[in-house]
Amino acid sequence: MPDALAERPSALQLFLIFARIGLTSFGGGLSGWMLREFVQRRRLMSEEDFLNGLSIAQALPGVNVTNMAIWIGYRLGGRGGAIACWLGIVVPAAIVIVLLGTAFAWLGNYAVTHVALGGAASAAIGLSLAMGLTAARRVPRRVFPLAIMAATFFAVAILKWPLLWTVLGAGSLSVAVTYYRG
């Protein structure tokens, strides 16, 4: 739930926030930017609320970041907020991608281009790791949730099992056990 003290942003403000996030995040790590912006900086939702939304966004088909933008927009501004956030995360970045694609056709022959892209990828991996650690800290310190987290990591990262089936299986098991335990 948003803080009682935090003023809800308008649809235009939501659009501009997501346009900035989308235009200043390279190679991933956008969920980390969203966490900082909506939980830590603006205090528009709790960390628990944010991580619940992230879980939903990751479980749904489609691009996680887009799903998360729509979820945050809906939480903070209803349908109009959801549309504004979706437009903000997609449209400005799509315009830049088209422009960069055109420029890369020309700049791709220079080694410095590949070095710059490698640096941006490294930074994005760091942001993703920070987000993963934040989410891991929120896992209840009980044996079963930690076992599910470890088993999911092992199945996907080590055994290379399909992400969809692993998450569906682990998620279903986790929900069932939590439900029956009360």
Automatic annotation (TrEMBL):
Q: Where in the cell is it found?
A: Cell membrane
Which keywords, in A-to-Z order, does the entry hold?
Cell membrane, Membrane, Transmembrane, Transmembrane helix
Q: Where are the transmembrane segments?
A: 12-35, 83-107, 113-136, 143-163
Checking InterPro entries in the record gives: CHR_Transporter (IPR052518), Chromate_transpt (IPR003370)
Annotated GO MF terms: chromate transmembrane transporter activity
One short Pfam name that applies is Chromate_transp
Topology in membrane: Multi-pass membrane protein
**GO annotations of cellular component type:** plasma membrane
As for family, the record states: Belongs to the chromate ion transporter (CHR) (TC 2.A.51) family.
Q: What is this protein called?
A: Chromate transporter
Identify the species of origin: Bosea thiooxidans
